Amino acid sequence: MRTDHVGDEVDGGTYVDVAGTTLWHFSAGDPQGTPTVLLHGIFASAASWGAQVPDFLDAGLLLFMPERPGHGHSPDTTSDFTCASIAERTIAYLQTVVGRPANIVGWADGAAIALVVARDRPDLVNRIVYVGGYLNPRGRRPDRFSDMVLSRNPVTVEYLRTHHDATSPDGPEHFSVVYDKTLRMLAAEPDYAVADFADVRAPVLVVVADRGLVRMEHALEIVRTLPNARFAVLPGTHIVPVEAPELFNPLVLSFLAADPPTQWLPE
Question: What sections of the protein cross the membrane (predicted)?
């Protein structure tokens, strides 16, 4: 694994040192804009947000898109993938790279990480958009693609390998290591009690697909537990940001811009 490329530019992004770990990240936008960090999920990368970047930049946001170790352009580490280590590294990234409180938009297990960061370091978080994630196994419903990943379906493995090999500095031979580490994480995490986040005061927009991986009852439990949460279900969707950016993007941007009143009463 290469660890000597901090500061190098690759595909428009840059390598940075975060708490002793080399990460690739992409940042763009108005330096005076609101910092907004986009967190991808497992087997994904900053490229997951390709359908959001143009609209988010047009809205004047200052975007930060870090890639986890072993994902995208970031070299892997010798450690297993865990929610705790990802959250700790995200906190370090917010402190050292972003440098001021930010919005966090998290997708899949990146959504769970966003809530962990808001719980543990509320001073670093303005608002959260929680997209298509579950907090524990009871929040997950059967999903064909996930089942193919877990069963090592050959076509699925090759699809994921192709994406890994296109950008990874660790080389094609390292994919099997990343795959095994990912399956170990999926078997055990995330596994948080929804009640663990009852003290998260940051405004949170919970977005789910009506045909997605997350049980609707689980999403509603999250919304009812968080003190300042809003809920959106996008119809006819499974992978929300990719399938329906025309619905997702303005929804997120309006939430990040201002809170509507929580209730309305006539004068």
Answer: none
Residue 5, pLDDT above cutoff 90? no
pLDDT surpassing 50 at residue 28: yes
224 or 261: which carries more pLDDT confidence? Answer: 224
* Helix segments in the chain, DSSP class H: 53-58, 83-93, 109-120, 144-150, 154-167, 175-188, 216-225, 240-243, 245-257
> Do 121 and 90 form a contact (C-beta atoms < 8 A)?
no
Place of tokens 């994630």: 133
Going from the N-terminus, what domains does the chain have, and what CATH number goes with each?
A: 9-255 (3.40.50.1820)
Instruction: For residue 246, give the amino acid letter.
Output: E
The tokens describing 3, both together, are 């660890």
- Amino acid found at 25: H
- pTM score, whole prediction: 0.93
Indicate the DSSP class of residue 51: T
